[in-house]
Amino acid sequence: MVTFVNKLTVHGDHDAFLAVRARLTAYMSAQPGYVSHQNLRALGAGNVHLEIAVWDSADAHRAAVSSDGFRAIVADLKPLVTAEPAMYETEDTAAPLEAAGVR
Fold first, then answer.
1. Phi and psi of 85, rounded to 5°?
2. Which residues does the UniProt record annotate as the domain ABM (predicted)?
3. Residue 56 has what pLDDT?
4. CB-based contact 93:38 (threshold 8 Å)
5. What number of other Cβ atoms are within 10 A of residue 13's Cβ?
6. From residue 54, how far is each of 29, 43, 92, 98 by CA, in Å?
């Protein structure tokens, strides 16, 4: 499993952003390999959002974002936001803690 995190800073119409994001979320949640999704909004900075999506694999996510359907929706999103996307993997935190004598 991998986690996709995308920081979105909205500089266009916020309602238009929410509408496009809803379309994009619906599209992505129907793609093979999709597991779950969460949207967060920064307290005190209402124009900053985090999109967090869990996928079976980076390849499944890559296939979804390579599709024509995805590109069509993202074309509507690009004028509204600045995006900072990244893919993450789970990090083993137990081994370093045990090595340090914590636990």
1. -85, 150
2. 1-75
3. 97
4. no
5. 12
6. 10, 23, 17, 28
